[in-house]
Amino acid sequence: MAVDERTTAQEVEFVADGLTLRGKYWPGHGQPILALHGWMDNAASFDSLAAASALQKHPFIALDLHGHGLSDHKPPSGSYGIWEDLRGLAQVTQQLRQDFSAEQLILLGHSRGAIVASLLAATLPDQFSHLICLDGFVADAASGDDLPEQLRRHIVDFAVPPKGGSPCGDLERLVAARMKKGLMSDQAARRLVERNTELRSDGQRYWRSDRRLALASPVKLVKSQWQAVVDAITVPTRVFAASRGLGPRLVSLPITLHEGIEVVPVDGDHHCHMEGEMTEELATQIAAFCRQR
After folding, report:
1. Cβ neighbours of residue 155 under 8 Å, at least 6 residues apart?
2. Above 60 in pLDDT, residue 5?
3. Which stretches of the chain are assigned E, i.e. beta strand?
4. pTM here?
5. Which of 112, 163, 249, 257 is deepest in the core (most CB within 10 A)?
6. Does residue 93 fall inside a structural domain?
């Protein structure tokens, strides 16, 4: 990856385990930020945050996780459990550290991406200096005794042959539906929809996203496992909890947080990092947090 002056985002790609992860890169000369988006979103989720004035000095790399945006789908034998991203992300992390001659990266995630980031920081704590979670942190814990039913759902879901791609509708209708579902502005919804769809030669728009993202995982982690994950996170961690998103759950997690993890309530919806003044406010708080050691 060429390290040059920040202008507009550049498209980048990484090959890990034979699959291509694509994303967006905003150049800079400070400590790199690796950003992971939420479920059914993509790298465009971070367009506004990466361009915020408070984060201008940081090289900012936002990935399309597998099955999202422009990145490859998992092979027919693959699935999209939250831990399935870790091996490829570990390889991308190593490449970025080499490209930027950086001992550590700043790790940032939103929603599902924040859960994946927490697992990654717990697993490879020496490779990250800070963990920033936007309206997400750990997933809801399973009870444990529902494992057979969870496995059954996984098998049944994946037994259904994938349907052939069919047109998903015109852009304006898709944007309107995304705005309604995600409680976001036209601009934010449009960024996500445009990257998660493609306009083909027949003049019709088709989803790029892998339908298997909505299928059941084989297992879910129980409370003791999530507690072990949290206990293993040794990097300074800031969790921003959106008041009209997952905030009410995040401020009352049923696990013990150690003193290096701080939950900070913010006034906003689940995608508030994409929206206007809140983007700048979050960027300012993130930049200040990353200056702390």
Report:
1. none
2. no
3. 10-16, 19-26, 33-36, 60-63, 105-110, 128-134, 197-199, 205-207, 237-244, 261-269
4. 0.95
5. 112
6. yes
